[in-house]
Automatic annotation (TrEMBL):
Keywords: Branched-chain amino acid catabolism, Cytoplasm, NAD, Nucleotide-binding, Oxidoreductase. Its EC number is 1.4.1.23. It comes from Streptomyces angustmyceticus. Homodimer. This is Valine dehydrogenase. The gene is vdh. NAD(+) binds at residues 195-200. SUPFAM superfamilies: Aminoacid dehydrogenase-like, N-terminal domain (SSF53223), NAD(P)-binding Rossmann-fold domains (SSF51735).
Length: 367
């Protein structure tokens, strides 16, 4: 049964309607949080604890409305359940979103208040970094609860989880190349990366070392400039629309916010493979079939971007980077297994991944 705690007196019916819509995936608990003193408004969504405590990051974003923030938390937390299941972790799925522009409202007081809400869940939810939050933020959040990962090594954590996230996406891309072209390398392939922030710029390095040609874009000019300064052989284009139309593009890697694969982007997408770090890349149900019908191989986002959650989960048991990297390397095998299941069942890879994740969660519930 969903647990709803009011965010504030002005919460409208639209937010509550979003919470209880059955198609959102049957979440166990949704907490709407507010701390007036610090200005905190946040949503913590726990989708499932069938495999263990819900694990997922904290996103800090300027949402257009509270309902949009709730919907994002619901979608992201459900994705974390599936991601953790296929990553072989003993964790369910959860996610938190803090509402507001982090450049304008993020303060120590606000992060400490958020940490107190995490503490109030008594270990049902374990948090970490996500878009708009960083290791330094998790160090602050952890001061008011013991269920915070993604902390700095100086504070008992593993540091930046984007390192293994990028590594895992690269392994998923290698598996995609194996399935599509019979060779697990991107050498000689043209790869377009939309978003070269925390994960995307690290993915650039893996691809260049593997011999790929890389094209990038980002809404932040400074992010593009940073990559181009380090790797002048990388080509930059104006925006994502230009990127997906790039002639000779083999792989499209969405590495920014979700919804990259939509009714608008699919008809002009030139790549034969989609494999990136962004969460919730499919704008709506049915896009996965449209990709398949067009002959575009889609590596499910929550499978290939699981390297970061593998790292933060390990932090709870005494972090060991080499052990985590070995686990993240298995994303290659998991991705290939999903493609094989999709082919055997005659379904898109996204549906095959869902079936495998649901199977593991169902087995855990029976136990």
């Amino acid at each position: 049964m969903t647990d709803v705690r009011p965010a504030h007196a002005g919460t409208d019916g639209g937010v509550l309607h979003t919470l209880f819509r059955s198609e959102q995936g049957g979440h166990e608990q949704v907490v709407l949080c507010q701390d007036r003193a610090s200005g905190l408004k946040a949503v913590i969504a726990i989708h499932s604890t069938a495999l263990g405590p819900a694990l997922g990051g904290t996103r800090f974003h300027a949402y257009a409305s509270e309902e949009e923030a709730v919907l994002d938390a619901l979608n992201l937390s459900r994705g974390m359940s599936y991601k953790n299941a296929l990553a072989g972790l003993d964790h369910g799925g959860g996610k938190a979103v803090i509402i507001g522009d982090p450049d304008l409202i993020k303060t120590e007081e606000l992060l400490l208040a958020y940490g107190r809400f995490v503490a109030s869940l008594g270990g049902r939810y374990v948090t970490a970094c996500d878009v708009g939050t960083y290791v330094a933020d998790m160090d602050v959040v952890s001061r008011t609860n013991k269920w915070t990962t993604g902390r700095s090594p100086q504070n008992g954590g593993a540091g930046d989880s984007s390192v293994l996230t990028a590594y895992g996406v690269f392994q998923g891309m290698r598996a995609s190349a194996q399935h599509a072209w019979g060779d697990p390398t991107l050498r000689g392939r043209k790869v377009g990366i939309a978003g070269v922030g925390k994960v995307g710029h690290l993915l650039v390095e893996h691809l260049l070392q593997d011999g790929a040609e890389v094209v990038i874009t980002d809404v932040r000019a400074d992010s593009v400039a940073r990559v181009r300064a380090k790797y002048p052989q990388v080509t930059a284009v104006a925006d994502t629309e230009e990127l997906i139309r790039t002639e000779g593009l083999d792989v499209y890697a969405p590495c920014a916010l979700g919804g990259a694969l939509s009714d608008e982007s699919l008809p002009v997408l030139t790549a034969k493979v989609v494999c990136g770090a962004a969460n919730n890349q499919l704008a709506h149900p049915g896009v996965e079939k449209d990709l398949s019908d067009r002959g575009i191989l889609y590596a499910p986002d929550y499978v290939v971007n699981a390297g970061g959650v593998i790292q933060v989960a390990d932090e709870l048991h005494g972090f060991d980077f080499d052990r985590c990297k070995t686990k993240a390397a298995k994303i290659f095998d998991t991705t290939l297994a999903i493609f094989a299941r999709a082919k055997a069942d005659g379904i898109p890879p996204a549906a095959a991944a869902d079936r495998l994740a649901e199977q593991r969660m169902a087995e855990a519930r029976r136990v």
